[in-house]
């Protein structure tokens, strides 16, 4: 292994792994190896991987310096840098770079720098972060009409996020409803979260019903709806949803192994534990101790109702 010299493919894969893991120190070690191996640093795929790992590891300035130093750029180079700016909410930089990308394509007529669907994810994400609603709509239409690209779930998700951030929840709901097929629960949960901020009970109820069809076992959506009811003072509906949650979700359970006593299991709302009385006596003494030391106050009955 002492004479082993990684080629550009090996290093590119290693850098991609560093980007996914956010391993900046490992990236620096790999880059040092690259510098000492002649001819390797000139590979465009490898440089693209470096831009990607710089950006994902938080060093956007280093990514941009490397990007600006490159004479040759392909669609991956441009996309990696646009995505890097978008990832760190540098919307203006990302959108300005996208404009330069289109200009570079116009002057060079090169098929190597035609924006692809990944490019538009970065563009739409930037519009969302900057609350540029009309510009985001323009780019969404452009990717279909000018570039013949079919939107995927990430594009729809960016558009929903863009509209929700602008407090256009109803428009976001209509947008999702007109999508060919949307089975991505993340998109619907973005809408549900926006309904919570907006206090839109009617839409929240519809969206939660849709989520129950997609992921019936996910009780978090019902919790979100109950919170929407609470913000509007609809306590009866909130309690009704909470009761549904209790029926659908198994009670919380903890277990502990005590030396010589085997394993004891504790289940929420369990009144049948053989040591229930002893457990609550210990709990009461702990509460008294905490109250005396820290001024902490807790009613045991609250725990019994959990």
TrEMBL record:
Q: What is this protein called?
A: Pentatricopeptide repeat-containing protein
User: At the top level of its lineage, which domain of life is listed?
Assistant: Eukaryota
Give the matching NCBIfam families.
PPR (TIGR00756)
Could you tell me the keywords of this UniProt record?
Repeat
Report the PROSITE patterns cross-referenced here: PPR
Q: Does the keyword Repeat apply?
A: yes
* Per-repeat ranges for PPR: 43-77
Can you name the source organism?
Cannabis sativa (Hemp)
Record-level GO BP terms? RNA modification
Question: What single Pfam family name could you report for this chain, choosing any that match?
Answer: PPR
GO: which molecular function terms?
RNA binding
